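Local shape tokens:
==================
===
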Amino acid sequence: MPSIFVASAIVGFTSFAFTFFTFLRVFWESIVTMWNAHREIKPVMDNLRTELYGERAYFKNALKQARSKSKASTRYAPEIQPLAILNDGIKGLMREFRELEEPFLDRPEEAEDLDIEKSGRVSLRGNYAPMDLWRRFAWLHNKDNVVNLGTMTNRIQARRIAYETSNTLDCVRKIQQHLEELDDRIYALEEHFLGERLDDGKIYVRRQYRER
């Protein structure tokens, strides 16, 4: 029996120690996050704002071009759907960014400037308010959400790059096909004008070589 009590006490103490040190680690990380909030908010938010604005501008122009080309030829219509899906994803991330950024702005109404549909010009730098205790707590609460938002933005960027790469490879294949067709036509013309027809009905190229 005593050995059972000793083992139980050891397990209980180990569990308590683990919980206590975990609490200390989380508490210390929270203090550090709040302490560094004034140095982290502006670069993190401005960088995320720039990435979102750049992606939104890209998809807006790409959609405009794809719709214009689809009116001229229906073969460009399949390009619209993937662009529209990625564009909707970026628009949703921009709305989430405005909600996360609003508590730190000197004037919250500035968050509306990020909407490209309403404003032709977008500031890539936010006018953030001086840091106080309340905003430090807000940063502690929202930092993980901002990091996750950046991760989702990077995923959309990766999909956009994959889409561009796929289109580029498709264009290269089409150019290669056109070059092969052109080479065949040149060869056929060469046979027609420079060749000679023999008894088997085929045209054999008669080339003239200059003496060196």
